[in-house]
Every structure is written in C-alpha cells, then in structure tokens.
C-alpha cells in the first residue's frame, strides 16, 4: 500500500538520507505490525532533531495500520443486560473502552500464544486499568503462516471461559473450511 505524507516544513537531502538509513536499519524485513510504542519511542529519541519530520510519518503509518486493522464491534447491547452493568460506573467504563479502538487493537494484538489468549482484568496500570472490571479472550486466526486477523470477546470477569474458547475454536474450524 502506498501513501503520500505532507510536511509543514521543507525537508533537506540530509534529512531524507538520515530517515532512509534509520528506517532501513530498524524496519527492514519487519512486518508493519511491529511498529509499536517502543519503536516509536526509539525513533523519537534517536532523531529528536527530526521530530517534525518523523511525527507525520508515524501518524500516517498508524492511520494506514488502523485502516487495515479494522475493528468491528457487535453484541455490545447484550453486554449491558448483564448484572455487572447495573453499576453505572462499570457500564460507563465499558462504553468508554469500546470507544477506544486503539486500546482494543493493542489488546487484540498483544497475545503471545499461537491461537487463544485470555486476559482477566486485574489491577493493571495505565491503559490496562480501564479493563480491570472485564476480561478479554482473543483468538488469532491463521491459515498456514498467514495471520488473517484476531477475534476478541470482551465481557465480565465471570464469563464462561471454557464456553467462549469452545466457540472460538468452532469459529476457527468453520473459517478454515471456507
């Protein structure tokens, strides 16, 4: 996929060469999904004098990634019928989480297992603090070595994990039949 990045300031040849070297050095051979916060921090730290140039590049990369990492939410109204959501604060927190697509994308992509990952809310810090009342089960769908996407279910911590995992395995089986 190609994209055009517009800069507020002119870029000289030396800056282009430096950017070329830096991106080739750090990103060559890496899948685009590997561009994450630690890499972003490295880029800003290493190239502090070029932040005005790097920032629009990172923003455009994130925009392209976000378009490709389409997040679709379904069944959210059913969640609100559960007893946990009788608390207005828990219900508001849940709705806020659903609005934060980047947080959801991070959770969907954070698993280390080959297929199914379970995150049970706890006393996390930062962004994970928002998920303290909830659990998330994710399933990475692959055909061969090609990652086709991730399916996730967010719900109360008391969700029936074995049932959710069984459903995800069934979905995987059906997707592989196609």
SSE layout and pairings?
Layout: H1 13-27, H2 37-46, H3 51-68, H4 76-79, H5 88-99, H6 101-109, E1 116-120, E2 134-143, E3 146-156, H7 161-177
Antiparallel strand pairs: 1-2, 2-3
Folded structure, characterized:
The chain has two domains: 56 residues, no CATH class; 102 residues, Beta-Lactamase (2-Layer Sandwich). Helix content is 48%, strand content 15%. The protein has a three-stranded antiparallel sheet, sandwiched between helices. The protein has 178 residues and is an alpha+beta fold. The chain contains seven helices and three strands.
Largest sheet: 3 strands, antiparallel
CATH topology-level fold name of the largest domain: Beta-Lactamase
Q: Which architecture of the largest domain per CATH?
A: 2-Layer Sandwich
> Considering DSSP H and I runs of 4 or more, what fraction of the residues is helical?
40-55%
Strand content: 5-15%
Low-confidence stretches: none
Write down the CATH class of the largest domain: Alpha Beta
């Amino acid at each position: 996929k190609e994209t055009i990045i517009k800069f507020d300031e002119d870029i000289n040849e030396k800056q282009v060469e430096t950017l070329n070297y830096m991106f080739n050095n750090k990103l060559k051979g890496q899948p685009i999904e590997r561009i994450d916060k630690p890499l972003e921090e490295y880029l800003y730290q290493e190239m502090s004098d070029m932040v005005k140039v790097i920032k629009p590049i990172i923003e455009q990369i994130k925009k392209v990634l976000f378009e490709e990492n389409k997040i679709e939410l379904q069944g959210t109204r059913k969640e609100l019928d559960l007893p946990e959501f009788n608390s207005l604060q828990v219900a508001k927190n849940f709705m806020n989480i659903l609005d934060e697509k980047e947080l959801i994308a991070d959770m969907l992509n954070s698993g280390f297992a080959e297929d199914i990952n379970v995150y049970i809310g706890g006393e996390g810090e930062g962004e994970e603090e928002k998920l303290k009342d909830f659990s998330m089960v994710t399933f990475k769908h692959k055909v061969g070595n090609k990652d086709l996407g991730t399916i996730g279910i967010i719900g109360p911590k008391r969700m029936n994990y074995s049932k959710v995992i069984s459903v995800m395995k069934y979905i995987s089986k059906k997707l592989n039949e196609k």
